[in-house]
UniProtKB/TrEMBL annotation:
<dbReference type="InterPro" id="IPR036249">
    <property type="entry name" value="Thioredoxin-like_sf"/>
</dbReference>
<dbReference type="InterPro" id="IPR010987">
    <property type="entry name" value="Glutathione-S-Trfase_C-like"/>
</dbReference>
<dbReference type="InterPro" id="IPR004045">
    <property type="entry name" value="Glutathione_S-Trfase_N"/>
</dbReference>
<feature type="domain" description="GST N-terminal">
    <location>
        <begin position="8"/>
        <end position="93"/>
    </location>
</feature>
<dbReference type="InterPro" id="IPR036282">
    <property type="entry name" value="Glutathione-S-Trfase_C_sf"/>
</dbReference>
<feature type="domain" description="GST C-terminal">
    <location>
        <begin position="100"/>
        <end position="222"/>
    </location>
</feature>
<dbReference type="Pfam" id="PF00043">
    <property type="entry name" value="GST_C"/>
</dbReference>
<protein>
    <submittedName>
        <fullName>Glutathione S-transferase</fullName>
    </submittedName>
</protein>
<dbReference type="InterPro" id="IPR040079">
    <property type="entry name" value="Glutathione_S-Trfase"/>
</dbReference>
<dbReference type="InterPro" id="IPR004046">
    <property type="entry name" value="GST_C"/>
</dbReference>
<dbReference type="Pfam" id="PF13417">
    <property type="entry name" value="GST_N_3"/>
</dbReference>
Length: 222
């Protein structure tokens, strides 16, 4: 287990290429032993009574933690998982300490940006392009959100990555784990495949944590 880790056991409920992959990547980066339990959300397993008892929001990820003092906790939001895991392992230096407020604020901002604003844009595209019954899909909603990616999100990310190798500077942080998943999501829509983002994707994909976290990506069903 990671040096000085307060976590005795971790269980991640997961589906390939979903938001749970971002948490899986960080668990691997932190060298936290964990069990991965696959939830076939595409085929409705997330709506089963057994899973709804764990997460009434019927989504992955779910992260169940047992701490070294015997206490237990279940987390349902990937952004909270990213920050919490990184904070519990300060020696890994994947999130700046409070004593460095500028650097920490930037990492927290990028985790929140990915977990809220960017997630919402990407999810709306997926709903109206792939998941909703055809009768209720809105091509206008898809186009509106694709335009937001191209005109608003992409320039912000390109500006950051033209200045340094990682999303918050020259050092890999926990924010790169959540950005990695959303970048893959964007690239599946044909956005972010050039220039600084293309080079960034290659750096991410070279990390053993990315390779392990996305080793099941071919099992994703649209």
């Amino acid at each position: 287990m990671t040096q000085s880790s307060p976590i005795d056991q971790a269980t991640l409920y997961h589906y390939p290429l979903s938001r749970s992959a971002r948490v899986r990547m960080l668990l691997i980066e932190l060298d936290i032993p964990h069990e991965v339990r696959r939830v076939d959300v595409v085929r409705g397993e997330g709506l089963s009574p057994a899973f709804m008892a764990i997460n009434p929001n019927h989504a992955v990820p779910v992260l169940q933690l047992r701490y070294s003092d015997g206490s237990e906790q279940t987390l349902l939001e990937s952004g909270a998982m990213i920050i919490h895991l990184a904070d519990l392992h300060p020696h890994a230096e994947l999130i700046p300490p409070i004593s460095d407020p500028v650097a920490r604020g930037d990492v927290l901002q990028m985790v929140a940006f990915n977990a809220s604003h960017l997630d919402t844009i990407l999810w709306n595209i997926r709903l109206h392009r792939d998941l909703f019954p055809k009768a209720v899909r809105s091509e206008a909603t898809v186009q509106f959100n694709m335009d937001k990616l191209e005109r608003e999100v992409l320039p912000q990310l390109e500006a950051r990555l033209s200045r340094h190798d990682w999303i918050c500077g020259n050092t890999f942080t926990a924010a790169d784990c959540i950005m990695a998943q959303n970048l893959g999501w964007m690239r599946s829509y044909g956005i972010g495949r050039k220039g600084a983002l293309r080079a960034y994707a290659k750096r991410l994909q070279a990390r053993p944590s990315w390779q392990e976290a996305y080793s099941d990506m071919r099992e994703f069903e649209r």
